[in-house]
Amino acid sequence: MQTYLTNGTCSRQILFDVTPDNKVTNVKFIGGCSGNLQGISKLVNGQDIDYVIDTLKGIKCRGNTSCPDQLSKALEEYKLKKASSPSEE
C-alpha cells in the first residue's frame, strides 16, 4: 500500500496500490468529501495508471488543486520512485 500526503485539499492522505501491470487499485482518501471520494475511488479502480493521471491531472477545486488532482500527483510520484529504484526481478 502506497501513502501520499496531500497538499491544499480537504483530504489529508491518499492510500493506493498499483498492480504489476500498472493498474490502480484500493484507492482510499483520508478526510475530504466521503461520497465524492468513494466515487472517484471506484471509478479509477482497475484503470491503467497513465489513464488515471491523464484524466485527473489539473482538475481544480480550491487552492489551485483538488482531490482528483492530488491523486494524479500521487501516482506520478509513485512512477518516479519506481523508475528510480532498482529492479526487484
Characterise the protein shown here.
With 89 residues, the protein is an alpha+beta fold. It has helices at 34-44, 49-56, 67-84, and strands spanning 2-5, 11-18, 24-31. It has a three-stranded antiparallel sheet with strand order 1-2-3, covered by helices on one side. Helix 2 (49-56) packs across helix 3 (67-84). The model has no long low-confidence stretch (mean pLDDT 94).
What does the main sheet amount to? 3 strands, antiparallel
Q: Could you say which structural class the secondary elements and strand pairing correspond to?
A: alpha+beta
Unreliable residue stretches:
none
Number of strands: 3
Shape: globular
The percentage of residues in β strands lies in 15-25%
In N-to-C order, the SSE pattern is EEEHHH
User: What is the CA-CA span between the terminal residues?
Assistant: 19 Å
What topology, given as strand order, has the largest sheet? 1-2-3
Number of helices: 3
Integer average pLDDT: 94
State the helical fraction: 40-55%
Radius of gyration: 13 Å
Summary tags:
42% helix, alpha+beta, 3 strands, 89 residues, three-stranded antiparallel beta sheet
How do you describe this structure in short?
By secondary structure, this protein is an alpha+beta fold. It has helices at residues 34-44, 49-56, 67-84, and strands spanning 2-5, 11-18, 24-31. The chain has three helices and three strands, in the order E-E-E-H-H-H.
Q: What is the element layout, followed by pairings?
A:
Layout: E1 2-5, E2 11-18, E3 24-31, H1 34-44, H2 49-56, H3 67-84
Antiparallel strand pairs: 1-2, 2-3
Helix pairs in contact: 2-3
